[in-house]
């Protein structure tokens, strides 16, 4: 992790959130149960806001190591995708895992709200 | 009858486990006030134990010959039941009446489905919100409603029921509700029953 990467880790809940602002990669990993008012929730929202405001041509959202995410978390990712869609200039790529059920079942719905969304499953 | 002991690492929040039938069914009485305090402090108490794992253990106590060939993988069952149980538990914590003391979570396994049921006490006011939501759900196309909810503002999330919609749409689960009036305290006992099919189609 270099100094361009911001990171937040919570060992007790075993998740980490990283944002590499040079390569425009947001990585979420571990098990994340987002709760409104909670620190991780605001942290993710603020990084998503940062990325949207910067309007990079391409951003990679890597959730391929995010084993668990609750429905609020899925909703937060959906909001990010909607804002990127509305900007029209940001190409969003999602790196996901075929082994992780919430991704194969729920995350793929994001394509319905942003058809240009690019998925790659590993 | 076979009983299996589970190490749940959450004993301070659990009443002693009670088995209706050790092969297939158990329920957990969770202390609402402790859960609520923990939830408000640090988010939900999850991942200290796995309802999906419990369901898989139950399945293993049933003779394999009773199951159809085309079962979902263990990993898919575990992850799906974890998601469903955690969403139900979180809803119960968020919406229980403030005077409530217990949340009941049941996991029941048959050869075709795994049923997760949450039971908790809610106020009449909260019950009315649920009735409206259920009416809306029954009169809409759940797939369209799901996308509509995803498009909504985050601040509306508390009442969006996205968890339940994702169970129906993404997990092909069937949801039933039962409400019982507790007259002497003017509250409602709410049961949310989620039936998850374990055969791949």
CATH superfamily of chain A: STAS domain
Question: What Rg of chain A, in angstroms, do the CA atoms define?
Answer: 13 Å
Low-confidence stretches of chain A: 1-8
What structural class do you assign from the helix and strand content of chain B? alpha+beta
- How would you characterize the largest beta sheet of chain A? 6 strands, mixed
pLDDT < 50 stretches of chain B: 1-23
What's a concise summary of this model?
Chain A is an alpha/beta fold and 122 residues long.
Description:
The complex is a heterodimer of chains A (122) and B (201). The model of chain A is unreliable at 1-8 (pLDDT under 50). Helix content of chain A is 34%, strand content 34%. In chain A, helix 1 (39-54) links the parallel strand 3 and strand 4 (58-69). In chain A, 35% of the residues are buried. In chain A, strands 1-2-3-4-5-6 form a six-stranded mixed sheet. Chain A has a single domain, classed as STAS domain (Transcription Regulator spoIIAA). Chain A has 122 residues and is of the alpha/beta class. Chain A is globular, with a radius of gyration of 13 Å. Chain B is of the alpha+beta class and 201 residues long. In chain B, 38% of the residues lie in helices and 24% in strands. In chain B, helix 2 (51-60) packs across helix 3. Classes of the chains: A alpha/beta (122), B alpha+beta (201). Chain A binds chain B through residues 12-14, 31, 33-36, 38, 40, 45, 68, 70-72, 74-76, 78-79, 82, 99-102, 105-106, 109-110, 112-113, and chain B through 39, 42-44, 46-47, 75-76, 79-80, 82-83, 86-87, 90, 146-147, 149-151, 154, 157-158, 160, 162-163, 166, 169-171.
Essential attributes:
heterodimer; A: 122 residues; alpha/beta; Transcription Regulator spoIIAA; 4 helices; 34% strand; globular; B: 201 residues; alpha+beta; 6-stranded antiparallel beta sheet; 6 helices; 6 strands; 24% strand; disordered N terminus
């Amino acid at each position: 992790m270099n100094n361009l990467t911001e990171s937040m880790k919570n060992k007790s809940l075993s998740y980490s959130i990283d944002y590499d602002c040079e390569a425009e990669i947001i990585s979420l990993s571990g098990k994340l149960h987002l709760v409104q008012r909670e620190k991780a929730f605001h942290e993710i929202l603020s990084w998503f806001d940062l990325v949207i405001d910067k309007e990079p041509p391409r951003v990679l959202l890597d959730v391929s190591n995010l084993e668990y995410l609750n429905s609020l978390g899925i909703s937060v990712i959906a909001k990010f995708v909607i804002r990127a869609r509305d900007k029209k200039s940001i190409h969003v790529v999602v790196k996901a895992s075929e082994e992780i059920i919430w991704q194969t079942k729920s995350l793929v719905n994001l394509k319905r709200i942003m058809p240009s969304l690019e998925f790659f499953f590993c | 009858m076979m009983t299996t002991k589970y190490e749940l690492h959450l004993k301070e929040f659990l009443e002693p486990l009670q088995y209706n039938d050790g092969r297939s069914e158990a329920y957990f009485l969770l202390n609402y006030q402790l859960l609520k305090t923990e939830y408000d402090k640090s988010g939900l108490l999850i991942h200290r134990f796995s309802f999906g794992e419990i369901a898989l253990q139950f399945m293993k106590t049933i003779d394999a010959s009773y199951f159809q060939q085309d079962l979902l993988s263990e990993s898919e069952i575990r992850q799906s039941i974890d998601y469903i149980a955690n969403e139900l538990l979180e809803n119960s914590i968020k919406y229980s009446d403030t005077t409530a003391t217990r949340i009941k979570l049941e996991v029941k396994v048959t050869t075709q489905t795994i049923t997760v049921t949450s039971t908790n006490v809610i106020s009449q006011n909260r019950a009315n919100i649920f009735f409206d939501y259920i009416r809306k759900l029954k009169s809409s196309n759940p797939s369209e409603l799901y996308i509509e909810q995803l498009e909504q503002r985050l601040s509306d999330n508390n009442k969006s029921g996205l968890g339940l919609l994702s169970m129906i749409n993404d997990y092909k689960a069937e949801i039933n509700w039962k409400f019982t009036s507790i007259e002497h305290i003017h509250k409602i006992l709410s049961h949310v029953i989620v039936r998850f099919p374990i055969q791949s189609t």
